[in-house]
Amino acid sequence: MPKDPAKASADKELKSLEFRLDxxxxxxxxxxxxxxxxxxxxxxxxxxxxxLIEKNELARTRVESMxxxxxxxxxxx
Length: 77
Description:
single chain; mainly alpha
């Protein structure tokens, strides 16, 4: 019994759609993993930035303190 040409065409189209869907699922999985990695990296950068701001503030406070001590030494001489 020969295959119906319409059915053969529909089967071919269905296989093509299944293949494309599998490709899209693979792309989606890859993008989700990439997104997770980027979010982790961003979180690390935010943490690092906060630490650097804190260190910068501490250094600024120390420098201001040194300047004030030097000014006090100048005025006492």
